[in-house]
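dude i think i finally got it to work??
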Amino acid sequence: MIVSFIILIIFLISVGSMQYYFFEFDLNFYESIAINLISSVIMIFPTVFILEKLIKRHNKKVLEKNEKSQYLNTLSTRHNILTSQLEMIFIHFVTKKPADIRDEYRDIKLTLNKLDNYVDEDFLRNGYKIHVVDPSNTFNFQEINLSYQKFCKYEFKDKTFNIIADYTSRYVVFIPKAVLESLFKIEDTIKNNIFTVPEDHGSDFDISKAKFNPNQFIQEIRTIGNEIVKMKKYEG
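look at this
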């Protein structure tokens, strides 16, 4: 477009020169050229600006599509495992029940829709049930109880951080920007003071009776859940 503009200017200058050389000076003629030149400038620059925006947007979409295609072609199975692990930990943290692939608790969207039912004034007081493998029999699971603060530290935060760190360290070269942003958003949200427990500082001080605002918890928990949903949608 810039080249066309330059050619137009050269053409108008040439016409003006020919008019001056072969004919008498005509003020109306040069006014006409000036008007045409100004009109062309007014039309060309907005057109160039709009076209550049459209081209950049198109190129960005093509790049993101290629990036996503390459990522899923290479790591589709691992991406699915990643999101499933994060999803099950998240659901367990919110519902306080182990996320069984066979029941409704496996649905993160359903969990997000019911946050008000799960996160209430007793959220810090109510404990968790977890299943651990019996060392003497790998096919047998033992059920043990954990307080909120211990589960939050060791089962929710530590496991989530470890899963994300392991995945990013292995595949960071392949991971698209959109997925990295979601993973980092999850990490940053979990590091929020609202999820801080005494165990983070080597203490086991009981916080089950601590006063807190459930709505603040819900807001941060929803942020984490929404990022997991984004990554699950990325699979499709």
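The first strand starts at residue 128 and ends at 134.
im so relieved honestly
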